[in-house]
Amino acid sequence: MLTNLVHSQDIPLSLQRSTDSLLKATPKTCQEIDRLLGTFSNDTIALRYIEQKSLLNKYYLGQAYALNNLGSIYRDQSLYVKSLDLYQQALKASVEADNIEFRVYSLNMISTVHRRTDAFKSALDYSQDALELAETVANPNLGLKKSIIVSLNSIGSIYQMLEQYELAIEKYEKAMLLEKELDDKLGLAINHLNLGECYESQGKLEPGLKNFRKSLVYYELMDSSTGKIKANYNIAHVYVHQGKVKEAINILETNLLKAISLNDKKIITTIYINLGWANIRLEDYDAAETNLESGLALAEKYEFNIEIADANKFLSELWIKKDDYEKGMKYFKESKKYEERITNALNLRYVNDMILRYESQIRANQLERLAQENESVRLRLKKNKTMLIIIGISLILLIGILYILYRQSQLNADKKLLTLEQSMLRSQMNPHFLFNSLNSIKLYIINNEKKNAVHYLNKFSKLVRKILEASSQREITLAEELETVELYMNIENIRFSNEINFNVHIKDDIDPHNIKIPSLILQPFLENALWHGLSSKDGLKNIYLEVKKGKSGFIEIVITDNGVGRDAAEKIKDSKLLKRKSVGIDITKERLANFSRDYENFFHVDIIDKFDDNTNPIGTQIVIYIPTI
To answer: Does the CA dihedral 387-390-395-398 come out positive or negative?
Structure first.
């Protein structure tokens, strides 16, 4: 009871005098109240005393001040339900006092609690309300300016989390204008870091790096150890993207030691994972494995889900680089599982938050209806019925829109696939090939070599038919694909005066009739070998196609030519006036990537330059990895 508080010997005389001075002066701003009561701002007993005395004297700003500080104490102890209740009481007292500064402050604090409990829709609503209310004041005081900064940063962080980077950048930059005016170095350091993350997420590395460096300058001015580490590992992250891997590793290793000394588990985990990623780029796979496993162990121990997903993603990349596709796929699936868990959890929290808000509103309406007369009840029931109809219609429209978006996504995917298949068919039957093939057959006819003309015309028609048939199928057997490329090579060999020695060898008791591959994927590689590797070569011209068993359940298709090599071919191509543009390989790689997504398999292509003992180029080798499971 209040009387007990007033007369209790537990209340220090200094607190009683400060409270009496407060009630006598009745200041109108948070800064003025803090000047009188700041020494008691973290004392729960003192704040309860101030709140009760202020309420007794109807000084609602004193009550709001005490309740807001109590809310912050419980918030920092993660007692969010109790904290939220105190902030709501402070908001009511601020409304009673008709004071915008305190109302804005309380709204921001309520938003902070909602954000920490992942109720992002509520957090966004309260921050927006706070900002709109603050902006109604033409000449805001210092306290109101600080609250505007809090609102803008809160909205910006929610937009950043929802990947609305342009909107987040807009809010952060507005907040920084006020932070510069108030010389708020910590705010500027944090917001330059936020801006850097937004720009990097958009792929804008230079603006991102510029902001990370500015953040580092501010943290150095404040001598903030944690801040300097955060800025440095973000700078290193950009360096890896830019190919400055050694510089990045040097920064990360230095800051790892500093983070370990601070015992900040989240930062230590992040640096280990970034170090592993950088080691992969440097092809130091042993160091990469050590760092990534260390980061993953910490992330799993402390349940850092985002870091778990990142560590698994980089470990998948690492093991694929080390040709262990089974481990690579295992880590890849684990990464996807955590990414989906993060997304689903976020969506679930968002939906639950919306449901709670609707239920709260319904309960409030029910209490209000019970307090009214019968006629008012009937009117409100009618209104609620209309509201339910509107909500029902809105939900139906929302479901319809979501279905349309889903179908649009499917149609876009089908359109992309169709475009790829059409591009693939054009690359297989390009006008140059058709024209030259028919021209060669015409030459046989002119020279009265009817037997040869009929022979190659049969092969040409059979090839065209097989290409058209295969183009309508997503997968065909390896045997069918080999038959098609043999026909292609026979016809192309006419134009090379039969100088090409083309051989196919199937090893390891492989049955090509039981192996399914994407249709028409080999011809672009053979065409590339012919026209870029062998067309400029003098002497013996060989193309060797070998099918053999690879590692971890993969079949390897190896195409080897003894051409001039890629570097020489590129120089010859650049010297020609009429350049032959080859897009077949790019299309094929994109098709393989598409199959990887659709069939949950992993297709991979390696291009290897071959050299003799004197480092002279002696050809090119293509290795296509085809999964058999």
So the answer is: negative
